[in-house]
Structures are given as C-alpha cells and as structure tokens.
Amino acid sequence: MTTEHEVRRPDRVIIRFAGDSGDGMQLTGDRFMAQTASFGNDLSTLPNFPAEIRAPAGTLPGVSSFQLHFADHDILTPGDAPNVLVAMNPAALKANIGDLPRGAEIIVNTDEFTKRALQKVGYDASPLEDGSLDGYRVHPVPLTTLTIEALKGFGLARKEAERSKNMFALGLLSWMYHRPTEGTETFLRRKFAKKPQIAAANIAAFRAGWNFGETTEDFAVSYEVAPAAKAFPTGTYRNISGNLALAYGLISASRQADLPLFLGSYPITPASDILHELSRHKNFGVRTFQAEDEIAGIGAALGAAFGGSLAVTTTSGPGVALKSETVGLAVSLELPLLVVDIQRGGPSTGLPTKTEQADLLQAMYGRNGEAPVPIVAPKTPADCFDAALEAARIALTYRTPVMLLSDGYLANGSEPWRIPDLEELPDLRVQFASGPNHTLDDGTEVFWPYKRDPRTLARPWAVPGTPGLEHRIGGIEKQDGTGNISYDPANHDFMVRTRQARIDGIEVPDLEVDDPHGAAILVLGWGSTYGPITAAVRRLRGAGDAIAQAHLRHLNPFPRNLGEVLARYDKVVVPEMNLGQLATLIRAKYLVDAHSYNQVNGMPFKAEQLATALKEAIDD
Amino acid sequence: MTDIGNGLLQLVPRAEARQSMKDFKSDQEVRWCPGCGDYAILAAVQGFMPELGLARENIVFVSGIGCSSRFPYYMNTYGMHSIHGRAPAIATGLATSRRDLSVWVVTGDGDALSIGGNHLIHALRRNVNLKILLFNNRIYGLTKGQYSPTSEVGKVTKSTPMGSLDAPFNPVSLAIGAEASFVARTIDSDRKHLTEVLRAAAEHPGTALVEIYQNCNIFNDGAFDALKDRQQAEETVIRLEHGQPIRFGAGLGKAVVRDPATGDLAVVTDTDENESRVLVHDAHAASPATAFALSRLADPDTLHRTPIGVFRSVERPVYDTLMADQLDVAHELLGKGDLGALLAGNDTWTVAG
Amino acid sequence: MAYVIAQPCVDIKDKACLEECPVDCIYEGPRKLYIQPDECVDCGACEPVCPVEAVFYEDDLPQELSAFRTADREVFDGLGLPGGARGHAPLAADHAVVDAVPAPSTT
Questions:
Q1: Is B331 an 8 Å CB contact of chain A?
Q2: Distance from the C90 Cα atom to the nearest Cα atom in chain B, whole angstroms
Q3: How far apart are CA B87 and CA A429, in angstroms?
Q4: What is the CATH code of the structural domain delimited by A6-230?
Q5: Chain B residues within an 8 Å CB radius of C55
Q6: Distance between C36 CA and the closest CA of chain B, angstroms
Q7: Which residue among A29, A202, A403, B230 is least crowded, i.e. fewest CB within 10 A of its CB?
Q8: Per-residue model confidence as pLDDT tens digits over A486-512
Q9: For chain C, first and last CA: distance in Å?
C-alpha cells in the first residue's frame, strides 16, 4: 500500500526528542544527528539531561531531551523553538510544551498517557483530550504497543521489546525528514555485535517506525531539508562534539609537539568524556591516569610535565577549585600544563549537567598570590579542537599552565567539522635544555634553570635524564636566574612582575571585528555564546539594524587591540552565561562602561531573546 | 659496589664513573636547625647513593612541605619541592611517564599522613615504582610545634594546651593496610641500619615505604631516646631480619611468639621450652597478617618493643610497568596511532567546490 | 666536610657538645675532643654549645687555627668508623698538633 504524501521543503527544522532518562533519548538524538550530518545539512545540537543517572521514572526532573537544528544553510545554534517535539511520556510533554510555538508538531507516545502517569506530573485531565493542545498538530501514536507488535517474532520479553521504542520513534522521524537509514542500521549492528538478537530487534523497530510513517494517513506531510552544500568550504566533513574535538586537539598537539601526552584526571561531569576518549588511544602513546582525587590528577600531570610530557588535567569548576594550589605551583615552577575546565552550573556542586560560563574569574584569579594564567576559550564544539592546539602552543612556548575554558554546552553539543589536513596543524616542537646556559664571572659554565629567553621570558625546560643540568625547583620564591631559594624582597618583587610580564607578553592574534555597516554598538562575547550571539546579530542586520560583533578566544592576555576596538564604539554589550564576569574584567582594564546581559539558567542563550535584548540596547 | 639487579632498576641508566658521597651534595647550604635528625638522614642518603651506581641525572627527589621536604635542595640530583602532601601524586606522574628515572619521595608525618594521607595510601595500593622516605618526628616542626597525626594521645602543644585528643596513626600499620608491597622502619641516628633499609628499599620493585624515626630537637626532643640510648635500646628495639628468629633484650633473652589461643603476637622470655615457638621473621610472606601484628607490638607511648627493619617485602605487579604494557599492547593491536585516520573517523561526507 | 674541634678545647674538654651530638660522633682524647668526620652529619649542634668556641665548620676555621683542620680526621687513621662514642674507650693518644700545645702552667 502506498499513500500519496505531500513533501514540503523548509530551509531549516528544529526537532526535540524528550523522554524519561531511561528512554534512550540521547542515543536517539545522536543517531538522528549522524544521519543528518551524513546527509550534508549543517546542524547544531543541544543535549539536556538530568544529573541523576536514573531519576524517578515518569517525573519532571527525570526528563532527558536532545534538540537538533538542521538546515540547508550555515546555522549557529541548536535553535530556540522546536518545530517538532517527540514526547515519550506526559512528563516529557509537560516539561517541554512551553518551548513550543503554536502550530508545532507533537508526536506523543499515547501508551504512556495513563491516569497514573498523568497524575504524577500534575495533569488532572489528559492534555490529549482536554483541548489544551488545540493549537498544535498532535500525532498520537501508541509507540510502545506498535514496537511490541513489531517485535513479536523475536522471542523477547515484553520489557525487553519495549526498550526498542526509541528506535521506532527514530524510524518514524527518519521517514518524516527523509533521513538516510543505512548508517543507523550499521551502527546498531556494531553496537550490539555481541547480542545479534537485540541488534535485529532494534533494526526491526527502526524499520517499523519508518513504515508506520509511510503507511499512516496521520502523517500526511513529510519534509526535505536540502544539504547545506553552499554553506561549507570545500573539504571532507564529519560531525563532532566539543569534548571529542578537544580530546582530538590534545592528541594532535602531542603529535605536533613530538611529546608524549599525559592526562591526570578525576571523573567529573561534564569533563569525563575527555578522559574516556583519551584512554582509548594508548597506541598514540597517550598515558591516562585516573587519580584518587582532583588534586592528584593535576599533581600527576605536573610531575609528568617535569619529566617532559605534554601534560593535561581535565575537570569542571569544582575540580578547578581543588586544583588551585597546584596550578599556583605550576605558575611558580613555570612548567607547561593544560588545565581543561568544562564549565557547568555553580557554585559548589551546582548543576552538573547544565552549562554556565561562571568560572572565568576563577580561572583568572582563583589562586593565592599573584599567579597569572593564560586563558583560552573555544567558541563552538568543533572549535574545541583548535582551542586545544592553541592552549598547547601557549603552554609550551611560554612554559606556563594554561586554562582552557569550555563548557557543558560545547562539550555535549555537536556540529559538522571540516577535517583538517595534518599539514595545516601548527608546529609545536620544543627544545629541551641540553647544556649550560650561563657563564659565571670566573668563566665556569653553569645551568641556570630560571635564566629566561629574552623574547618570551620563558625559562629553559630541562628534563631529568639530562646530564649536567641537575637542578631543584619548588614553590618557594626563587632567585632570578639561579632558581635557588630566595627570600630577598627586591628579588620577590622582580619575580612577581616578571611572571606577570611573561603572561602579558604572550603573542595572541588581534581581535577581529565584524562590522559591515559602521555600527555604533558592539556586542562582545567569549566562549560558547558565539553561536547565539552571531545568530542574533544576523537577525538584527536582516531587520536593518547596524551592530558590530567581536568574540574573544583569548581572555588572558586580551588581544593587544581590544582597548582600541572598545573605544571605537558608543556602547559595548557583553552577553554572558554568568553575572557579568567578562564585563567586570573589561570595565576594570579599559574603563569602558560595558553593559552586561546575563543568563544563568543552565541553558545557552536563545537567538531571539538575545536579538531582542540587543535591539533594546541599539534603540536605547 | 653492590650489584642491584631487579628488573626495574635496570631501566635506569648507570653512572659512567664511580661516584662518591660528594657528588650527591648540592651547592646549597643546609638549613635545618642544628642537631636536627634530618642531617643524619641526609648524610646517610648521600652516602648510600653512590652505591646504587645510577646516573645522577636520572635520580629525582620529590618532596612536599615541612622541614624534611627541604631535602631535595641538598641533593645534587633533579628535584622538586612541591606543595603540602602532594609529593606522592606528583611523583606518580613522573615515575609512570619516565620509567628511566629513579624517583624518591621525601615526606614527613604531617605531610604524608595528614594533608597528604590520601595520596600516600593510593600510591601504596597502586604500587607505583617510588621510594618514599617518611621522616616521622611525631610533631609539626616547620609550623612551630603543633601535634601531628603520629603524636601520642595527650600531647601538650601550642594547639593542644590540655593535651591532644586524637589517637595517632601507626605509619607501618597504615601502609600495610594500604596494600604496601614494601614497608620498613629505621632510625635517623643508626646510620648502618638506615643504609641497609635504604638498600632494600631501592632494590624493591614498586612502592617502598620507609618510616624513619627522626628527632626534632627543638619541638619534640628525645622522642625516640628510648630506642637510642644504648642501655635502653637493648630492651626496646626489636631488630627484624628476614629468616631469623625474632629475639631481643639483653643477651637476646626475649622472644616474640604467637599466642596459640588468639593468634596475636606476644613477647616471652626465651627458654629452651619455648624455643620452637619463637617466630621466624618472614618479610616475604604472602599474607600481611604477621607483618601487621609485628607493627602493633610497640607501645605507642613508651616505644617499648619497637620493631625496626623490613616488615614486609613482597613482589606484586608494578603500576608503571602495567601502564607501559598496556601502551605496548595497544601498539600491537592497533598499530602506531594514525592521526589522520583518527580525525577522519568512520562517518564523513565531502563538500566539493 | 665536617665540623672540627680546634685548640680552645685543649685541656678544657667541657663535653657540652657530647650531649648535643645526635649521632654520637665526638670522641674523647687525652687532652681534646675529636669529631669523627665520616660519622659527622654536619648538623652543627655542637658548635653553639661549646663554652670556649672551639668548634668550627671545617671551611670556616680561622687562619691561626688552620693547623687543626685535619687533626680530627687524622686521629682516626687506623680506627675507621668506631660507630658511636658512647661505650667506646677514650682515644689512647692525641694528635701531634695537640701534643704540641704547651700544657697549662700549674701554679
């Protein structure tokens, strides 16, 4: 039986899959994303899940969702308002309906809309029947029943068969949006290679979902979003998440520096995936050490740095707090070390699975004494790759710990990434000290561990095993040059200023300003707000408003031209997912009356909301 | 020169020329209080190092914070004076990434057992190839005399004017409980014994913990006099030697036996009658039970019946070796990492110009 | 390198240093005390307690006392490392440089 379907061709679509945290929504979204990526759309994703591994079933706090925005042109955010919501239960409907514009499509799993499940989330009557969803296009589908029926011949227990309902939903959505399906079937065969029966069942559920769309009149319309061929420069692409890109960036930095990679880390959300990923690549000479705590994680990394490794520790905000003293030691020892902070909601344990940018001042100042540390922040998931290489360049060139500030949104979000040619990667090779670097008055050749390179102010990196360069370093103030303990007041003053000068003198690219119309107002961002800010700026310009945009990758030191850029504009607006931390730094350093626009709800900005705020600033 | 031949030390390059104690003295003036036990330990270590015959540049001393942690500055090797309690963690990163190094940790009772207690026990359970010298003076010296986690109960100090309340750690018991593969105890002023223990520790593959009773002549003077005074020492010190019956006291008239009823250890007067019951020290015993029981023999207040020597020395897999093996296996199974292939992954598409 | 005991000790032998020495490396001769240089750990505990200021770090010995630089080392030639002064018999003879110091006049 075939039905004539109408096919519509929108330029972009936003889909949100929502269900219980045990329903497999992240996997479903991930697969839809992979299909979409291989089809050639531009895309951006926003996974959103509770901190609890299995929050009580059917409750609002237990809802897990995955939003995906894909288009035939380049896009910058996971989208503000979904065109389609897949709600696997009443909780998923209730938690997400507020984000849906009228007219959006809602696919609900009617099997889960039982009296008890409805009561659990405070529905007195079923929203499917009380008319409250009249403004939406609702597709009631008994997903569970259909899945169980489709898997009848597989000899699975009911509970087991039920588990494949997410694949049924994926099949249905794949039909609706004309997604290629081979990738998902291959994926399922690989994932369940050791349980062929389960693999076959999932594939059957997936196909059943597809066929359901094809044969049911309820789904009269399907959609085709053309590949975004024009949006992308020539090249080979893949889809990549921020944490994966960051892990690959670290491995690439290790290769480009010709130094073994050492990761000392303690599991923490949302950074653990970097530990997991790096642990899989021991054949690249990567050593990963799961330490007893955050402090040991960075301690081991610092020990490896002393021994000549490219050393990294990965964590989130609470872990940075614990590592602070060791970062201070690394500042004093002047050894290269990457401290990766995947920021999450704070303070304290805060919101482990939600995003925030509130560790900027901690990264900048969160240590005792004058302990300057360079800060690099990626702006998109794929950019985590380049940011990792840039952080490594700074650490290795200037012999300093570097903070790499990603966040939960970048870490778990994903986008297409043009795979770089290896020849494009920067040369990060370093020269270890190999002999004496100083001549005493009496003509003796000696090695001074704190004699600096006059250009970079970096000290020599003399690794154990090098004859004749035996030396002792530590956290007590050192005499300039010799590195011997010194309590001399003038020397301390000199060393404090020199350490600061070394960081201030780091060469970073000038800030680029996007200002096609000579605007009077500048929006300045950093980190993961790049997508929403850029999308908002596009909307404003589309509506005829003039606004300039600049985005900071280097937070310490700032680009040399930042002060001059800020001075060019009548007004500077700084949107941040904190209470104004970059704005504070800008105001203090450049005496600019920067306006903060803040949001700390654990979610990224929405483009529309930012556009409204920026419009107000323009009109003000 | 002793031939030290375990598999791990062979990874460390050997010195080309014969070394002397002088080669291991740095140019830095030693700045402990006059009379500090640390001087004796430093002299013993500097005197012992040439015997190892390792290239000086492949030896690293890592310390935390405290009086003893100044130690690396005085050794003409590579060294790091780090932060309070963290030396075992830092040394773990160094030792696991550089198996061609001989890595030593110098720490004190506050550094290792209080602020750094976590790192110590985890280094021990992992069996990282580290030699940890724990200077135990049962007091905080650098902060001027507060009680430490090894101070006896009721210790009157500036921070405990009415006496300390907390029961002390027994470092040897703690280490054995933390799965240590090598645990020994020695005394700062007994250079011969200290050197013997250092030798055994250096030869041990894996983490070796050496507790060194060390006198702080400023804040806790005479803490170990019961073990140092010649007359008293005969009655107080039990010298453990592997394979030898455990006897001590004047004319070795006392012996350690196992109480058949409780399984505990007891001290008896050595007679012909109980000759056969005298415990023969077995440092290599697979079970840590007897070593632990020996660590409990001493009276924590009077230090009577304090065993010194190697309590436990057993071979078990070394963390750094296992880590290196995994890298080798990954190489064999997957081949040398191909970055281009890694970055590309399995799911790509091409955009043509 | 070690501490040495110089002329001011001769015929005085106050022995305050013996109490202070943590490694028991100061031995008694007929007219002077001697530091066994290989047993000495350079801790300096003996130096400030000497009432006649006879103890010096080897390198810091004043010019006029330079004859005593090697006396402590040489007196142990043939004795090796006695392993602690307590319980050790006093040395049978002084170093020649001590013998050369005139005996105090008796009145």
A1: yes
A2: 17
A3: 29
A4: 3.40.920.10
A5: none
A6: 14
A7: B230
A8: 999 999 999 999 999 999 999 999 999
A9: 40
Task: State whether B91 and A295 contact (CB < 8 Å).
Answer: no
Expressed as residue numbers, the domain containing B131 is 9-229+317-331
Phi, psi of A578 (to 5 degrees): -160, -170
Q: DSSP class of residue A521? A: E
Taking the CA of residue B71 and the nearest CA in chain C, the distance in Å comes to: 14
Q: Does C16 touch chain B (CB under 8 A)?
A: no
Token pair in block for residue C65 = 């006392």
Identify which of A324, A271, A332, A274 has the alpha carbon closest to the alpha carbon of residue A299.
Answer: A324
B335 and A303: CB-CB below 8 Å? no
Fold of A237-424: Rossmann fold (3.40.50)
Strand ranges in chain B using DSSP code E only, listed in sequence order: 59-63, 78-81, 102-108, 130-136, 182-187, 208-213, 237-239, 247-248, 254-258, 265-269, 306-313, 348-351
pLDDT value at B151 more than 60? yes
* C-beta atoms surrounding A424 within 10 Å: 6
Chain A residue numbers with beta carbons less than 8 Å from the beta carbon of B329 are 282
- Gyration radius (Cα) of chain A, Å: 27
The CATH number linked to B75 is 3.40.50.970
pLDDT higher than threshold 60 for residue A1: no
Could you name the CATH architecture of A513-619?
A: 3-Layer(aba) Sandwich (3.40)
Instruction: Point out the residue among B77, B90, B350 whose CB comes nearest to the CB of A299.
Output: B90
Partner residues linked to B75 by β-bridges: B25
Residue C28 has pLDDT above 50, yes or no: yes
| DSSP H or E segment with residue A342 | strand A337-343
Helix, strand or coil, per DSSP, at residue A339:
strand
Which residues of chain B does A283 touch, with a Cβ-Cβ cutoff of 8 Å?
A: 327, 330-331, 333-337
Tens of pLDDT, residues A131-186: 999 999 999 999 999 999 999 989 899 999 999 999 999 999 999 999 999 989 99
Does B contact C via 3+ CB–CB distances below 8 Å? yes
Selected residue of B56, B69, B82, B329 to mutate for chain A interface (largest A Cβ count, 10 A) = B82
**Would the CA dihedral through C42, B147, A291, A245 be positive or negative?**
negative
User: How big, in percent rounded to 5, are the helix, strand and coil portions of chain B?
Assistant: 35, 20, 45
| CB–CB contact C45 B34 (8 Å) | yes
Q: Do chains B and A touch (3 or more CB pairs under 8 A)?
A: yes
For B27, nearest residue in chain A (alpha carbons): A484
Q: Which of B45, B70, B38 is nearest to B59 (CA)?
A: B45
The fold of the C3-99 domain, in CATH, is: Alpha-Beta Plaits (3.30.70)
- The shortest C-alpha distance from C105 to chain B (Å) reads 36
pLDDT digits (tens, 9 = 90+) for A72-99: 999 999 999 999 999 999 999 999 999 9
The beta-carbon neighbor of B80 closest among A233, A325, A473 is A473
Residues of A in contact with B351 (CB under 8 A): 40, 229, 232-237
